[in-house]
Amino acid sequence: MANEQAYGLLINYEFCTGCHSCEVSCQMEHDLPVDRWGIKIQKIGPWHIGGDDYQYDFVPVPTDQCNLCAERTAKGKKPLCVKHCQSLVMQYGPVDELVANFDGKSKYAIFVPKAGTAQ
């Protein structure tokens, strides 16, 4: 069996505004119930961390419901969360290419679904 290249999401959450466009587009496309998400925005903070510094971040977190929009990506389209991200903080692609985009200056998260659930 040939090694298949792993695909995933790279999320630069330092610049996520918490607009929830990724959540809403995913939930509507996949007809998920009100209490389920393929991707969910989590709020961190605000926490005072010293001086004039606070941590206040929004982090898009894919759930086990996420298959990276397999039907869309099979047609060469982006997952809906990436397409509708208003802050342009999400990238989709081969994991090795995504990792090459780390700049060492921003806050990143990478998501790779379980084997066999996404393309």
From TrEMBL:
<dbReference type="InterPro" id="IPR017896">
    <property type="entry name" value="4Fe4S_Fe-S-bd"/>
</dbReference>
<dbReference type="InterPro" id="IPR051555">
    <property type="entry name" value="FDH_Electron_Transfer_Unit"/>
</dbReference>
<keyword id="KW-0004">4Fe-4S</keyword>
<keyword id="KW-0411">Iron-sulfur</keyword>
<feature type="domain" description="4Fe-4S ferredoxin-type">
    <location>
        <begin position="7"/>
        <end position="36"/>
    </location>
</feature>
<protein>
    <submittedName>
        <fullName>Oxidoreductase</fullName>
    </submittedName>
</protein>
<keyword id="KW-0479">Metal-binding</keyword>
<keyword id="KW-0408">Iron</keyword>
<keyword id="KW-0677">Repeat</keyword>
